[in-house]
Design a protein that fits this description.
heterodimer; A: alpha/beta; 6-stranded mixed beta sheet; 4-stranded antiparallel beta sheet; globular; B: alpha/beta; Transcription Regulator spoIIAA; 13 helices; elongated
Chain lengths: 263, 378
C-alpha cells in the first residue's frame, strides 16, 4: 500500500530551538503516501514541536521541510496556502471554535475554501460527523457542551472536512478511555483505508502504535533514533527505545500482537 | 487530477446512461452539484438509469455523497438506478456514505412572534436584575473570607496582594496621572473661556478646586481603574475558571475567594485612594498650569486662591468615596470572572459586562454619596 518512492512529507536536517535550548537537532524524517506514521518520544522530546514545525506554526533554525512537494522556504505564499488546504490537523485539545456549533466547526473550512451550496455543505458536514461516529443531534451542540471524546471526534471531522491528503494528529487518543481510544484507532484505520489518507500521528499510546501504525519513528535527543515497523523497534539498541517498547506494558502488547499474527 | 467533472446523459437501448468523468472531489463540488442537477432533469422521465463511473479520475467524500444523493433521488422517484464501473478503491467510500444522512432533520428553532419578543424582553429584564445578585454573593463571600483572615492573619496571601498592588497601583500611575492632568487643564481652560465673559475669572479656581477634589478626581480614576484593572481581573479569573484552575484550588481545600479574590480586592481598595490622591493633584497642577499660561494668573495667586476656595472637607469627600468604589469594582470584576462558562465568547462577554456594570455602579454610588454628604452638610 505504501509506495516507498513517494514521500509526501520530507524533513531534512531540521534544527528547531527556543532561546538557548535546541529541541530538534539535525533531524531527518520521511513520511510516505498512504501510510500511518506514529511518532513517539518521551515528554519534552520535541514530538509536538516537530509536528508544529512541519505545519509551519513554529519557525525553524535550519534544514528543510517539504510537504506535498512544496518547500516551506522556497514556495510562494499562495503555494503554501494551497498546501494548507490539502492537510487537516487535529490539535491535542481539539481547538474547536467555541462560538460555533459542532456542525459549524466542520463547515468552517468548507465555507472558506469551497463554493458549494448551503444544502450540500450541511449534508457533507453531517456525513462527516456521522462518519466519525456522532449523531445529528450532536451537531447543534457547542464545544463547551461536548465530552472529551466527542470533542476529539468533532475535531477529527473538521480536520477531514476538505478531504485532505494528509492528516496530522496530535495525541488523538490521549484523555480517552480505552474503549473510546480503541474506537478512535479503528476509526482512523477505516478512514485511512477508504480515503487513502496519509496520517502523521504523535502519540504516547502503545496500543495505537501496535494496532494502527504502519511505521513508527522514535524521537530522542533531538533526532529520530529508530524508524521502521513496530517489530523492528524491539530490536533497537537505543536505551530509551528499548525501555519504551520492552517495558512491562510494551512487552504485554508485543505478546498479544504476536499471538494475533500467529492466530 | 484537476479535470472538471461532468455527467452527461445518453439514451441507448431505451434506457438512460449517465456518463461521468473528471474528478469528483471537494474542489469541484460546486460545479459537480450543478452538473448533476442538470443531468437529473434530463433523465427525469426515464424508467431506468445507470450511472457509468468508469472515467472518474478522482473521488472523495464530496463526490461520493453527491453520487449517493443522486441515487437516492432517482430511486425515490421510482427509477431503477445502478452504478457501474466505479473503481475498486472508490467503492468503500460510497458504502460509507450509504448510511449517512438517513435520520430526520433536527427541527430548527421556531421564528419569534410578537409574544415571544415580549417574553424575550421580560427574560432580559429579569436577567439584568438577577445579574446583580452574584455581586451580593461575592460581597458576602469576601466579607467571610476577610473575617477568617483577620482571625488567622498568617493565612493572608500577602505576596499576592503586593503583586496585585504593583499591577493595579504602581503600573497604573503614569496613565492615570496623565489623563487627570489633561482633564484638569481642559476644565480650567473651559472655565476661563466662559467665565471671562462676565468677569468671573477668579471663581475658576473655586470651580476647578471643588470639582476636582469632590467629584472629577475620584470618578475619573475609578472609571480608568474599572476599564484597566477590573477588566483584567475578570479576564484572568475567567480563564482560570475555564481551565478548571479554580475547581482545582477548591478540591485542594483552599477557598478561591481567600486565595485569589481577597488579595485582588484589597489591592484595589488600597490602590484607588492613592491613585485618587495622585490624580487630583495632577489635575490641580494642570489647572494651575493653564491658569498661568492661558490667563496669566501667577502660580502664587492660584495657590492663594485655591487655599481660600477649598477646605479639607472637599478633599475628604473625594477620598472617602474612593475605597468604596474600589470595593464595587473589585466585587463586580471578580463576580463576573467567576461567571465565565466554557467558551472564549463568554469570556469576552463577561469582561465587557464587568466594565459596563462597574462603571454604572460607580456612578450610582457617587450619586448616593452626593445625597449623603449633602444631608450631613459636608
Amino acid at each position: 500500500m505504501a509506495s516507498k518512492a513517494e514521500p509526501v512529507i520530507r524533513v531534512r536536517d531540521l534544527v528547531v530551538g527556543f532561546g538557548d535550548t535546541t529541541v530538534l537537532d539535525r533531524l531527518s524524517l520521511g513520511v510516505y503516501r498512504g501510510e500511518i506514521l506514529g511518532l513517539v518520544g518521551g515528554s519534552g522530546s520535541g514530538k509536538s514541536v516537530l509536528m508544529r514545525t512541519v505545519i509551519g506554526l513554529l519557525p525553524k533554525r535550519g534544514g528543510t521541510v517539504e510537504v506535498l512537494g512544496a518547500d516551506q522556504d522556497k514556495a510562494s505564499e499562495s503555494e503554501l496556502r494551497a498546501v494548507e488546504r490539502r492537510w487537516g490537523i487535529l490539535f491535542q485539545q481539539g481547538a474547536l471554535f467555541s462560538s460555533l456549533t459542532a456542525l459549524q466547526n466542520v463547515q468552517f473550512p468548507m465555507r472558506e475554501y469551497l463554493h458549494i451550496s448551503e444544502e450540500l455543505m450541511d449534508e457533507v458536514a453531517n456525513a462527516k460527523l456521522e462518519m466519525v461516529g456522532l449523531s445529528r443531534a450532536d451537531g447543534v451542540k457547542f464545544p463547551a457542551e461536548l465530552s472529551g471524546g466527542m470533542t476529539k471526534r468533532v475535531a477529527l471531522a473538521r480536520a477531514l472536512a476538505l478531504d485532505p491528503e494528509i492528516v496530522f494528529l496530535d495525541e488523538p487518543t490521549s484523555g480517552l478511555d480505552p474503549i473510546a481510544a480503541a474506537e478512535f484507532d479503528a476509526l482512523i484505520r477505516t478512514l485511512q483505508s477508504t480515503l487513502g489518507l496519509t496520517v502523521f500521528m504523535v502519540t504516547h499510546d502503545l496500543e495505537s502504535l501496535y494496532l494502527v501504525c504502519d511505521r513508527v519513528a522514535a524521537l530522542a535527543d533531538g533526532k529520530v533514533v529508530a524508524e521502521g515497523p513496530i517489530a523492528s523497534m524491539l530490536l533497537s539498541d537505543h536505551p530509551w527505545v528499548k525501555s519504551y517498547f520492552s517495558g512491562e506494558r510494551g512487552k504485554g502488547l508485543a505478546q498479544v500482537a504476536q499471538a494475533e499474527t500467529r492466530g | 487530477m484537476s479535470a472538471t467533472p461532468s455527467l452527461n446523459a445518453n439514451l441507448h437501448d431505451g434506457r438512460f446512461a449517465l456518463l461521468a468523468s473528471g474528478s469528483w472531489t471537494a474542489v469541484h463540488a460546486g460545479e459537480l452539484e450543478a452538473a448533476i442537477g442538470r443531468a437529473a432533469d434530463e433523465v427525469a422521465k426515464a424508467g431506468e438509469v445507470s450511472i457509468d463511473m468508469r472515467d472518474v479520475a478522482a473521488f472523495d467524500t464530496y463526490g461520493a455523497w453527491l453520487l449517493e444523493r443522486l441515487i437516492r433521488q432517482r430511486s425515490g422517484a421510482g427509477q431503477q438506478t445502478g452504478v457501474v464501473g466505479l473503481r475498486e478503491e472508490f467503492q468503500g467510500l460510497l458504502q460509507d456514505v450509504h448510511t449517512v444522512n438517513r435520520k430526520e432533520e433536527v427541527p430548527k428553532a421556531k421564528r419569534h412572534g410578537l409574544f415571544s419578543t415580549l417574553g424575550e424582553f421580560e427574560r432580559v429584564l429579569t436577567e439584568q436584575v438577577r445579574g446583580f445578585l452574584p455581586f451580593l454573593d461575592m460581597l458576602g463571600a469576601i466579607c467571610v473570607a476577610a473575617a477568617r483572615v483577620i482571625r488567622r492573619p498568617r493565612d493572608f496571601r500577602f505576596t499576592s496582594m503586593v503583586h496585585q498592588l504593583d499591577r493595579v497601583g504602581w503600573q497604573a500611575t503614569p496613565i492615570i496621572v496623565l489623563i487627570t492632568f489633561l482633564i484638569g487643564c481642559i476644565i480650567a481652560q473651559q472655565g476661563f473661556f466662559h467665565f471671562r465673559r462676565f468677569g468671573a475669572e477668579n471663581y475658576v479656581v473655586d470651580m476647578v478646586g471643588i470639582l476636582i477634589l469632590r467629584e472629577i478626581g475620584v470618578l475619573l480614576v475609578t472609571i480608568m481603574v474599572a476599564g484597566r484593572s477590573g477588566s483584567s481581573y475578570t479576564a484572568e479569573l475567567g480563564s482560570m475558571k475555564m481551565r478548571e484552575e479554580i475547581d482545582a484550588l477548591r478540591t485542594m481545600g483552599l477557598d478561591p475567594v481567600e486565595v485569589l479574590i481577597l488579595p485582588r480586592v484589597l489591592a484595589l481598595i488600597i490602590a484607588v485612594p492613592i491613585l485618587t490622591f495622585l490624580g487630583s493633584m495632577a489635575a490641580l497642577y494642570g489647572g494651575g498650569l493653564v491658569a498661568w499660561l492661558y490667563d496669566g494668573m501667577s502660580p502664587q495667586i492660584f495657590i492663594a486662591r485655591l487655599h481660600e476656595a477649598i477646605t479639607v472637607t472637599h478633599f475628604k469627600v473625594g477620598i472617602i468615596k474612593a475605597p468604596f468604589m474600589a470595593l464595587v469594582i473589585g466585587v463586580v470584576a471578580c463576580a463576573e470572572g467567576l461567571q465565565v462558562k466554557g467558551s472564549a465568547e463568554s469570556l469576552g462577554l463577561q469582561t465587557t459586562t464587568s466594565v459596563v456594570k462597574s462603571i454604572f455602579l460607580v456612578i450610582v454610588l457617587d450619586g448616593l454619596f452626593a445625597i449623603f454628604f449633602a444631608s450631613i452638610g459636608m
